[in-house]
Amino acid sequence: MLAGFLEAVFNGISIGAVLLIAALGLAIIFGLMGVINMAHGELMMFGAYATFVVQNVCKQLGGVWFEVYIFLALIIAFIFTATIGLILEKSVIRYLYGRPLETLLATWGVSLIFQQFVRSVNWVLIISIAIFSLLFFGGLWILNSRTDLGRVRNWIVAMIFLLSLGVTITTGNLLSQTYQLAVTQPWFGAQNVDVTAPTWLQTGISLGGVQLPFARLFIISLTIICVTGIYLFLQRSSWGLRIRAVTQNRSMSACLGIPTQKVDAITFALGSGLAGVAGCAISLLGSVGPNTGQNYIIDTFMVVVVGGVGNLAGTIVAALGIGTANFLIGSGTLALLLSRVKPLADLFSFFATTSMAKVLVFALIIVFLQWKPGGIFPQKGRTVDL
Q1: What's this model's pTM, rounded to 2 decimal places?
Q2: Which CATH architecture group holds 2-115+197-379?
């Protein structure tokens, strides 16, 4: 029984490690910008799909490429999701600072768009997006070079938008009719896809009767590297110093010449990139689908709130605690461990499913926040009361 309990704790810690990577980015974004990014889960999903694509390419190449694809996937997932986050910040988030409700609704809408995008993405959609972006943003770039347009500027922008949209739709229809299924077949579809771990991650070791899969050990090691990297970045780099300064006092930082808008963009891109890395780790634990991010986003937000907004140590403790509690309760391990105490065994048996375990953990978190509303390590300082 002890070996089974220790194995369940280890599995829970590995899940908490995934939550920690995702929550690191969310904590940095929320702590600095006050933005509740409901699309953070979909950025994790993009990281998982990026891993799936890299895996397929490396399978075709064969040889040693498949054995090392996971390292290439981590780099590509980080860059890909960081780029998406940067575009999202510059096109949506930047115009909603100081309006948390509008930001929440906007990012929730973006999350739905991202989910549907993955379900229906094909060559026609990609080509159409590229054509629209080229025409519309190219037209805006040319328009910005003119300063004598006055009141007709908005009308010209509207015309550029309509013309770009018309050309895009016409081109998409022509491609669909000419090539039919060759360019309209979805790349992924609504079904889940499986990511095969490299051969060296498919086994494990037994330590004192406890089975430790290499895939979960790899995830825990990856989490340690990410936490260490973020700590060194925030404490030792010039941009990390700027991020901490803006987090403590945005107005004073701006007065001292710190480019707060650039800091916001870099922070959002960094947080999004960490979500992509978390998505890569998720792909090693199970299948990947359009709703993958939704399975983790609530737990990730709970980690940020329970740990204390913007606090690295609190985020670590909360992630490992919530991940372990979810697995121990959902797998029935606690019910089995407390079998001699019938009332408690019956209680935990009732919650011994993945969904019901989340309900119980969420209820416990609500009780905890009544006692410590600022989280495990609440923010301190004069700016908290402003």
Answers
A1: 0.85
A2: Orthogonal Bundle (1.10)
